[in-house]
Design goal:
With 314 residues, this protein is an alpha/beta fold. The chain has eleven helices and nine strands. Helix content is 40%, strand content 16%. Helix 7 links the parallel strand 7 and strand 8. The radius of gyration is 19 Å and the shape is globular.
Length: 314
């Protein structure tokens, strides 16, 4: 998302340096989308990856919005996006076109994972109409992605959504492999995913990529909570309480948040995102820090994390 100029603009050079730093740190999973910067993120990722062998990394992108050239791009959250308009299309034909467009923007011959993107009630563009779009996806996108998997053009598919409801419906109606669940499992807010969503996915052998483990910067000290533009009323007090425990044990809040999100067995990856090489290196280093068991025990004792929440190895 950051590589597509989410929240703030980045230059091509800075984006390339950020991706180079990720590779140097050992990162081999990269997630993008046509939506991020209206194609900008995919083009930047493609420029970076085209000299790397496909079997050396895992690449995921998304479907659900089809781009078309325009001289007047719509107003979106992206800074200096590519000159494209977008329309929602979860049909079989729309999904196949989106995959083929992504392959061309990325300059690669195959995709490892494709996520059906933003088909959720929290997507302000579709809101209450999400069940209508879901029915289109159930008849079109889901079976088409299964065909693309059988053809070998993709290796796996699932949904990339910010709400649990569409993911749980997809499990009941289709044959997905993996989900990208953003805004649903973090140090501050994780009960529903822990007790409802994760167990149902694990029963089917479906793994989870946790998106927004830092709540779009809120657990790294920013006063920005995810993507709605406002901080929930309960969040400041809870972050302050968790920070106090961090201070008592000499633990960095961002480090604790990343390790917590990565701990459940069903989680195959976390994608905190990064705009700069420094952020990439800090995130990578956080996963090698040893956090004392007493820190996690105090969080549980104070009711700041769920009693049953899996914890990192100490």
């Amino acid at each position: 998302m950051a590589i597509g100029n989410g929240f703030a603009p980045s230059s091509d050079q800075q984006s390339e340096q950020t991706l180079e730093a990720a590779w140097a740190a050992g990162v081999r999973y990269f997630d993008t989308s046509p939506w991020y910067g209206l194609g900008l993120s995919e083009r930047r990722f493609g420029h970076f990856l085209h000299n790397r062998a496909p079997d050396e990394y895992v690449l995921s992108t998304k479907v659900g919005r089809v781009l078309s050239a325009t001289r007047t791009p719509p107003k979106t959250m992206w800074h200096a996006p590519s000159p494209f308009a977008y329309r929602y299309d979860y049909s079989a034909a729309g999904v196949r076109r989106s995959v083929e467009d992504s392959l061309q923007r990325l300059g690669v011959s195959q995709l490892d994972i494709v996520f059906v993107h933003d088909l959720a009630p929290s997507n302000g563009d579709i809101g209450e109409r999400w069940p209508e779009y879901f029915e289109q996806a159930a008849k079109g996108a889901f079976p088409e992605l299964t065909r693309l998997r059988e053809e070998g053009l993709i290796k796996a598919w699932g949904m990339g959504v910010n709400d649990p409801e569409p993911a749980l419906r997809c499990v009941a109606e289709a044959d997905p492999d993996i989900f990208l669940l953003a805004c649903q499992y973090s140090l501050l807010d994780h009960q529903r995913a822990l007790h409802e969503t994760f167990p149902k996915l694990a029963e089917r052998g479906i793994s989870v990529v946790v998106g927004s483990p830092l709540l779009a910067g809120y657990l790294a000290g920013r006063d920005r909570y995810l993507y709605a533009g406002s901080v929930p009323d309960w969040a400041p007090a809870k972050r302050t309480s968790v920070q106090a425990v961090c201070d008592r044990h000499g633990v960095d809040l961002r480090t604790a948040a990343l390790q917590f999100a990565n701990a459940p067995e069903v989680v195959s990856a976390i994608i905190p995102g990064a705009r700069t090489p420094e952020q990439v290196r800090a995130n990578a280093e956080s996963l090698s820090v040893k956090i004392p068991a007493d820190f996690w025990a105090e969080l549980k004792r104070l009711g700041l994390i769920d009693e049953q929440a899996p914890l990192p190895a100490t």
